[in-house]
Amino acid sequence: MTETNPAGGPGDEVLLNSRPTVAVGEPLVVLSDVEKYFGELHVLKNINLSVGRGEVVVVIGPSGSGKSTLCRSINRLETIQSGSITIDGSPLPSEGKELARLRADVGMVFQQFNLFAHKTIVENVTLGPVRVRRKAKTEAHDRAMELLNRVGVGNQADKYPAQLSGGQQQRVAIARALAMDPKVILFDEPTSALDPEMINEVLDVMIKLAEQGMTMIVVTHEMGFARTAANRVVFMADGEILEESDPESFFTDPKSARAKDFLSKILTH
After folding, report:
1. 3-class secondary structure, 263
2. ABC transporter domain spans which residues (predicted)?
3. What pLDDT sits at residue 46?
4. Which residues contact 109 (CB under 8 A, 6 or more apart)?
């Protein structure tokens, strides 16, 4: 059944019966007492968050709340001033081969697709597995085609990014992340650069990943996706986690005044 969620806007038409039923396992990503500053600006304040294996955690909140910085800190695109972040029991490395290995294990899908314009779609997807995972080119190519077909763009494999729509390019970016066989995928507002009619095709791919047990941390403004696909919603404001709960509880009975105010605005616009 497809229905438009009243908590969302354009593009929040999602499958309401598709919430993942995958059992959540032991902690895979753990943030403890994390603090982050940009100069004088305190952007992450005492962040404590644990994400279980197979769990889908959606991070929402007003602009400037620290959501994207949180996401980028998990694979060390941003460095933190204090606290700790561990992935599968190992602390984030600071540099070198260990950092490259971490980023292979932690996939990232950005707002902008970040595809290499001079490489074909299939070349974009095979590049990481060949250079970082040291996979044979034929093996990487076969896996890339499998993933491109899985996200619905296998017939675009020999084209260049500029020849694809924004929704298609973002699906390629998801396939590229999956090609590294990551333990977790981070999504930093993956639909914000898309036209409304292209949003659903990306959300549908993400929902399928959730159903298949992929561990996902998703920063998004798509409330329909949050309500449908998340195991847990984390609400941030002013650099802090103010609330976290299952989607139904959060959207029907938020506890903090800040969350109530946030939801009242998006529910009426």
Report:
1. helix
2. 29-263
3. 97
4. 170, 173, 174, 177, 185, 186, 187, 188, 190
Q: How many residues does the chain have?
A: 269
CB atoms within 10 A of CB 90: 12
pTM of the model: 0.89
* Structural domains in the chain plus CATH codes: 40-115+183-265 (3.40.50.300)
* Edge-first strand listing for the sheet containing 56-60: 106-109, 184-188, 215-219, 56-60, 232-237, 240-245
SS3 state of residue 239: coil
Where does the pLDDT of residue 2 fall: very low under 50, low under 70, confident under 90, or very high at 90 and above?
A: very low
Query: Which residues have a Cβ under 8 Å from the Cβ of 265 and sit 6 or more positions away?
Result: none
β-bridge mates for residue 3, sequence order: 14
Q: Residue 85 corresponds to which tokens in the numbers above? A: 């972040």
